[in-house]
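Session log. Operator J.P. requested a structure for one protein chain; no other inputs attached. Running the standard single-chain path with C-alpha cell output.
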Amino acid sequence: MYRWKVSAYAPCSSTCTTGITTSYALCVRYDGTEVDDSYCDSVTRPEPTHEFCTGKECPPRWETSGWSECSRTCGEGVQYRTVRCWKMLSPGLDSSVYDSLCLSHDIHKPANRKVCQGQSCGPQWEVSEWSECSARCWSRGVRTREVRCSMEIRLCNKSSQPIENQECEGPPCDRRWTVSDWGPCSGVCGEGRMVRAVTCRSSGGVVMSEVQCDQLLRPLAIYPCGDRDCAPHWVEQEWQQCNATCGRGVRERQVVCAGLDGGVFKEFPDSNCDQSKKPETSSSCFQRPCSKWFTTSWSQCSKTCGSGVQVREVKCYQGEELVTRGHSCNSALKPEARQSCEIQSCPTEAPDDSCRDKPTANCALVLKVKLCSHWYYRKACCQSCAHS
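Structure written below.
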C-alpha cells in the first residue's frame, strides 16, 4: 500500500558553473499521494544520489586582501590592499582576470588604499645624507651626517639615536688627473699665462669630484709664458673648490715661483720671488645658504606580500628653520620619499582572510559526499572543511 518514490532532483547547489544536485525519496500511497515517511519501511528507503549539475556562466567578482599596516607609525598615513578581478571558469579553476572584465559588468571596484590615523606624532630622529668619505683611495676614513630631533633634543629617545659617524673606504685607486692641451699665451713675460683644464677622472673616463684624486699629485693648470727666457715670478693657480658645501668656507690655491729657461718651464724656490708680491693662497668663500635635506626612517612595507611601498618624510632645513615654501635645498639632491619593497611573494590563489563558507555553496552536502579534497569546494566551504 505504501512505497518509496525517488523524487526529482533538488535545485542545483551552485548558481553558476558546476554544482551538485541531490535526489531524495518520498513515501507515497498506492494512488501516488505523499504521506508521512513513517508509513514506509525505513530499511528499504533508497539512498540519496548526488550528481553534478551546470548553472549559468559565473559572473566576475572583486577579491581583496587584508589591509596593510599603516604607512606611518604616527600621524596620518596610508594603508594599501590588493584588489583583483576573479572569475570561476570551472570547479577547480578560479582565475584572476583583467580588471576590465569586472568593470564591464558595472561592479564597483573596492578601494585599494585608505587614509589611516595613528597616534599623534611625537619627537622623532631626522638625519641628513652622508658626506663624502674622507679617505683617499684604498684607505679607510670617516663619513658624517647630521642627526637632529624633530622637537627639542631632550624629547627624543637617546637609545634609538642614529649614528653620526661611520667608517668608510676611499674610492678605487683608478682615479687620476687628466689634462687638456695648453691654450694660447695671454701676454708678455711676467704677465703671460697659458691655461689648460685639469680634471679628475675614473679609468672609464668619467669626470669625478676633485676630492677623489690625490691633491698632492694635481698637475699645474697655469704656466708662465711670454718669452723663451723668463725670470722667476709668482704664478698663481686656479682656485680649488670651496671646502664647505654650503654657507661660509675657505678655498685655496697653489702659488708657485716659476719661470722659463730656454723655453722650458722651471720651478724655483720661493726665495727667488718677491715675498711682498706673493698672491693670496687662501680666501673666504660662500656657497648657497646652508640648507640640508633630512629624512625620517622608512615606514613598514605597505603590503605583506608582493610589491609594496615604503614611505618616509623628507624635509628641508635652513639652519634650525624648517623650509616649507620655495625650498632652498638642492632639488637634484632631494632624497626619495618612497621606494618599492617586497617582504615575500604572494600566493597564486585568491586571498581568503575571513575563511567563511560561501552562501551559494551547499557545504553540508559537500561534507556529506566528501568533496573537501577538491580545490574549489575546499575553498568555497573553507570553514566547514577545516573542521571536517
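Operator note: The first strand starts at residue 2 and ends at 6.
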